[in-house]
Amino acid sequence: MPIMILIEKMMIWLLPIYHFLKIKSLKFKKKIKVVFIATNLSMWRYQNLYQTLRKNPKFDVYILITPFIEFDSQQQINDYKTLTNYFEENKIPFLSTINKDNTPFNLRKEINPDILFYPQPYRKIVSPSLQYTHFLDKLLCYYPYAFWTSKGEWSYNQGFHNMAWKLFYSTELHRKDAILYSMNKGKNVEIVGYPNADNFLSGTYRNVWKKQNTPKKRIIWAPHYTIFSGGYLCQSNFLSIAENMIDLAKNYTDKIQFAFKPHPKLYTELCNHKDWGKQKAEAYYQQWQTMENTQLESGEYIDLFMTSDAMIHDSSSFTVEYHYSQKPVMFITNNYNEHLEGKSDFGKLAMEQHYIGKNKEEIIQFIENVVLKGNDPMKAGREDFFKRYLLPPNGKTVAQNTMDVFIKAFC
């Protein structure tokens, strides 16, 4: 057995013992320090939990903004501005690893947290000094940044999955997959519901759509970023329909508004693509931002979803999340059966509530028949899926379910 695997297995066995002792010590600590790491607004899942924890005098709560290091430099700047604007507009204090004097941010020295929430379970999303492997002496936690629909070890058996104190998952089907795939058999999993559910179910939504002279149907197009060739993660159809979607927006100017909601990483991938590059990518995004009946959406999307009439996409996360709107949705794929092979049982259930398309003609059929004429035979199935899987357990909010875990452990 390779030495690194042996060491990891020993860590997985020893850490629960350490966590037990750590929790006992924190019970007697006057203030428990909790840090939420934020890299991108559209992946920010901790707002409601942050607000809930702040109300309890046992916890000191911090937000730390840091770049997503795999993104293009310009996108890192844009993400930073979007996040800081969001927190400033909502009067939420935050810290940043981007210092004006370019000095490195030392999380242990500046805060020395007891509990640390990461936005993703992967090692190389943040700078080396902030990677979770440097904080195994802390209680690591995680809300999934997406409503997880994939199966397999990469989804549930990363080092973080096994070494974290708590993984706050969405449904019992996700716990079942964690037991099946993770080395620790999902012993650190708590079922609290999907974090964005609290926002989707709030009942109060802003109209974020560009003002039009006459009422129009509102359709979101949300392409995934995986435009590279080959590999089990390649699911984006962007390159084959990018110009078609521009044509559709022009052809339906008097009937439909389109919101272009690309995955945050798509811009970076296009900049690095041999047939695109930064100049073409910028021009394409600018076109969506400036046409009469279109807009570019790069940040928070709850209001966008809940005030729309339909969506067209190929994003695994949105496969579930858009069902909170209970509106019709089309998934774009050239091989539906092959796409399902990588899906969990939960993911397959979510996919079954979609209309399926693969080209411009089938997208037009969806627009004409379902969106404009209202012929929607899949409506009842979506509503049933919503009631069975999307409502948080225990009749509580996701934030309160999570808070109950904290109170049981520390109070």
Give structural attributes.
seven-stranded parallel sheet, 14% strand, six-stranded parallel sheet, alpha/beta
Topology of this protein?
Elements: H1 3-27, E1 32-38, H2 47-54, E2 59-65, H3 73-89, E3 95-96, H4 107-110, E4 115-118, E5 139-142, H5 153-156, H6 159-163, E6 166-169, H7 172-181, E7 189-191, H8 197-200, E8 217-222, H9 238-251, E9 256-260, H10 266-271, H11 278-290, E10 294-296, H12 302-306, E11 310-313, H13 318-321, E12 329-332, H14 336-341, H15 345-351, E13 355-357, H16 360-372, H17 379-390, H18 398-410
Parallel strand pairs: 1-2, 1-4, 2-3, 4-5, 5-6, 6-7, 8-9, 8-11, 9-10, 11-12, 12-13
Helix pairs in contact: 2-18
Summary?
The chain has 411 residues and is α/β, with parallel strands linked by helices.
End-to-end distance, in Å?
42 Å
Strand order of the largest sheet: 3-2-1-4-5-6-7
Task: Name the beta content range.
Answer: 5-15%
Mean pLDDT: 92
Number of DSSP strand runs? 13
Relative helix content: 40-55%
- Give the uncertain stretches in residue-range form: none
What structural class do you assign from the helix and strand content? alpha/beta
Radius of gyration: 22 Å
Question: What is the molecular shape?
Answer: globular
Number of helical regions: 18
Characterize the main sheet.
Answer: 7 strands, parallel
Describe the fold and architecture.
Helix content is 41%, strand content 14%. The chain has helices at residues 3-27, 47-54, 73-89, 107-110, 153-156, 159-163, 172-181, 197-200, 238-251, 266-271, 278-290, 302-306, 318-321, 336-341, 345-351, 360-372, 379-390, 398-410; strands at 32-38, 59-65, 95-96, 115-118, 139-142, 166-169, 189-191, 217-222, 256-260, 294-296, 310-313, 329-332, 355-357. The strands form 2 sheets. The chain has a 7-stranded parallel β-sheet with strand order 3-2-1-4-5-6-7, sandwiched between helices. Helix 2 (47-54) crosses helix 18. The mean pLDDT is 92.
